[in-house]
Amino acid sequence: MATSATPILKDELDIVIPTIRNLDFLEMWRPFLQPYHLIIVQDGDPTKVIKVPEGFDYELYNRNDINKILGPKASCISFKDSACRCFGYMVSKKKYIFTIDDDCFVAKDPTGEQINALEQHIKNLLSPSTPFFFNTLYDPYRDGADFVRGYPFSLREGVPTAVSHGLWLNIPDYDAPTQLVKPRERNTRYVDAVLTIPKGTLFPMCGMNLAFNRELIGPAMYFGLMGDGQPIGRYDDMWAGWCTKVICDHLGLGLKTGLPYIWHSKASNPFVNLKKEYKGIYWQEELIPFFQSATLPKECTTVQKCYIELSKQVKEKLGKVDPYFQKLSEAMVTWIEAWDELNPSSKSDSALPNGPAKVK
Fold this sequence. Notes:
Blueprint: E1 13-19, H1 26-33, E2 37-42, E3 57-61, H2 63-70, H3 86-91, E4 96-100, E5 104-105, H4 117-126, E6 161-170, H5 176-181, E7 194-196, E8 209-213, H6 214-217, H7 236-251, E9 254-264, H8 270-293, H9 303-318, H10 323-342
Parallel strand pairs: 1-2, 1-4, 2-3, 6-9
Antiparallel strand pairs: 4-8, 5-9, 6-8, 7-9
Helix pairs in contact: 9-10
């Protein structure tokens, strides 16, 4: 996919990168990402100097900066976990966010051409989604596709797309048990497809190759309490994805998955991962039914109102699973308070144009 002469949404998009190391990986991404502003969230030791290749426009925040900016509310931002990336979502002032991990490189399509992942994410976000009725030719708005026979004309306008979820070649995003069973497995299948995740269907959202419309869904993109001092890790993006999907379904917004691909270069240690994940693997058997059955009242007309209502349900229903969820529900409220303080123009009392979804 060739790059555009003028970068699309250059002044409307921030790229958020969580890291503990020098960002040499950006050299490979330079042709595609250099025109855009970067927000780097440094995890771990705040005294460590992170080197960024020359020529990139960026701002960098470490833990000391987070504590200074948020004060006591900094407790809602995870430490020693990539969940810290959501701080970048909060301080951004742009309409769109693209977030990528520092072990993700530029992939190639089957013709050998480098994939401009950001450009594809933007295409996904700028075209509608179709969550209320599945189109068997996948995304009907792509060149060479359309709505198939039998697709209701009343639904062909689609709805605004809030999230674009990309995939990975090489190292798949597996959990620790699957990593241990299939240590040499690599994803070599390039599927040239984008599809809308249907209303009422949850999905495992991976945060390493993800873009979203911050104005439409930003306050729901909280990656939870993970890492240092918490009983769980590697479920930060999962939690954000489940919350986001419930809220998007309620507000009539869409989520797309499929293209673009990135090249995931490094498999994390499955034994370390198992230690982080094991409670999540057990808990998710109760978390998934919770989110599948979660409903939001019609009074919840903004993302913030939806998220606060969801936090109450987390406290009431998941608090019985483990005290951790009581703490997480409180952090969800703190997150929204901090978001509104840093983003007073987001108008948490103003309803989205769509309001709650009317198609059942």
